[in-house]
Amino acid sequence: MVIAIYLVTLTNPRFGVASALVLLVGFIDNFDGIVAVRTNRETKWGAFLDAIVDRIVDVCIGLLFIVIGAPLEIGILAISFALVHEYMRARAGGLGHHEVATITAAEKPTRIALGVMFLLASAIYPTSAIELATFATVTWAVVGLIGFAQLMRGYRKLLKQ
């Protein structure tokens, strides 16, 4: 992901390659979890590392948009919603509720898809990259707000028991 950030800062940005890297990271992240489950090689350490890598990916996608030119404030808001979204799940798990509660509009695949789509759009329309990054970041923040509300509702019901 750091390479993707570097690629969009070049004088002649490589948005398409950055998009492919984000997609690759998303596939690898999902694939390693599937392999661990199917081969009965799940460990607490692996789950811990996976969660950390997921948060790094979230931050990097937000940084990609900010580096391209999205407003810093909106980028921070979008990243914050992603981090809070996952913290809510982790905290509920710490309270003994390992249920998902609800699948939201702001799940990790949505965040990765936004990164891939808008970077690819920037590759096709490089002169509109700043506007596309801004739109992607606003979209991410709005979806994050919706996901936050969905999780609050789901966990309110679950944790009141």
Automatic annotation (TrEMBL):
Kindly give the Gene3D superfamilies that the UniProt entry links to this protein: 1.20.120.1760
Task: List the InterPro entries.
Answer: CDP-OH_P_trans, CDP-OH_PTrfase_TM_dom
A GO BP annotation: phospholipid biosynthetic process
Keywords annotated in UniProt? Membrane, Transmembrane, Transmembrane helix
The molecular function terms in GO held by this entry are: phosphotransferase activity, for other substituted phosphate groups
Tell whether Membrane is among the UniProt keywords: yes
Transmembrane region(s): 15-35, 56-84, 132-152
Q: What is this protein called?
A: Unannotated protein
